[in-house]
Amino acid sequence: MRIILLGAPGAGKGTQAEVLSNKYGIPTISTGEMIRNALRQGTELGKEAKQYIDRGLLVPDEVVIEIVKERLEDPDCQKGFILDGFPRTVPQADALEKMGITVDKVLSIEVAEEKIIERMSGRRQCSRCGATYHIIYKPSRVENVCDVCGGELIMREDDAPETVKNRLEVYRKQTEPLKKYYEDKGLLVVAYGQEEVRDTTREVFKALGVE
Ligand code: AP5
Predict the structure, then answer these.
(1) Ligand 1 pocket, 64 CB below 6 A?
(2) Which residue from 204, 171, 173, 211 is spatially nearest to 190, judged by alpha carbons?
(3) Which end of the chain is less crowded, N or C, counting CB atoms within 10 A of the terminal residue's CB?
(4) What's the CA gap between 153 and 138, in Å, rounded?
(5) Do 13 and 3 touch, CB atoms closer than 8 A?
């Protein structure tokens, strides 16, 4: 199974990617998470990316294309993968094609903008392992403590309301055109985000035609 997840910031791509990854035993390749890891580790990539992420802008295509290309060569991607947050521009989609990578489906998760803003303000992320929570919809067992590794839960810096506004604008301009791009290739399917994570998962399975 090779899937691309499309959707606005906060639409629930990462949340649904985790469910699909556990169910099918295939890795999630999240460019956002890879970049945040680089930031945590203070690598050159992290330092370069920070100036873009902090403003809600996309990291330059050539940087992201290179890290995805390398990651897709890892042996665990042989039996399938979930691309979460890549491609995000038409040049990135073209680059994926040039790498000779084909996908089975491109799933767009659609959520109204008001909902997105509510979700971002309640999102918390583990400062150590990156696991994602929501204070209402997906709370941790102990407040502010990660269920997975015991790390402290914090708000993502790019979830500040002003940055979220920019990210949504960037999504509309640079990423949304990919829906038409993949629709024209007959690959696009759509799932509508629901109030509860499990209800969205049901829609995702339906859209992908899996049980
Ligand atoms: P990235 O990390 O990919 O951010 P994003 O696409 O903006 O998506 P998010 O991670 O914010 O949201 P999500 O859709 O995964 O939602 P989640 O499941 O967490 O990228 C960050 C930055 O990196 C970019 O801005 C850019 O600078 C850079 N970057 C990354 N990829 C790039 C690329 N290809 N090219 C260039 N630059 C790139 O859910 C959100 C919240 O809602 C959570 O708290 C969750 O618990 C909750 N929730 C989820 N589903 C539901 C539901 N059904 N009901 C209620 N709550 C829910």
Answers:
(1) yes
(2) 204
(3) C
(4) 13
(5) no
> One of 13, 36, 119, 124 is an active-site residue; which one?
13
Please give the C-alpha separations between residue 174 and each of 15, 42, 169, 181, in angstroms, as whole numbers: 22, 28, 9, 12
The residue whose CA has the least distance to atom 20 of ligand 1 is 32
Positive or negative, the CA dihedral 68, 89, 156, 16 is: negative
88 counts as catalytic:
yes
The per-residue pLDDT string of the chain (211 residues; one tens digit each, 9 = 90 and over) reads 999 999 999 999 999 999 999 999 999 999 999 999 999 899 999 999 999 999 999 999 999 999 999 999 999 999 999 999 999 999 999 999 999 999 999 999 999 988 998 889 999 999 998 899 999 999 999 999 999 999 999 999 899 989 999 999 999 999 999 999 999 999 999 999 998 899 999 999 999 998 7
21, 25, 9: which is closest to 204 by C-alpha?
A: 21
Q: Which two tokens stand for residue 160?
A: 């500040």
Close Cβ partners of 124 (under 8 Å, ≥ 6 residues apart): 132, 133, 134, 135, 140, 144, 153, 154, 155
Residue 12 backbone zone (phi > 0: left; psi -120 to 50: alpha; other: beta): left
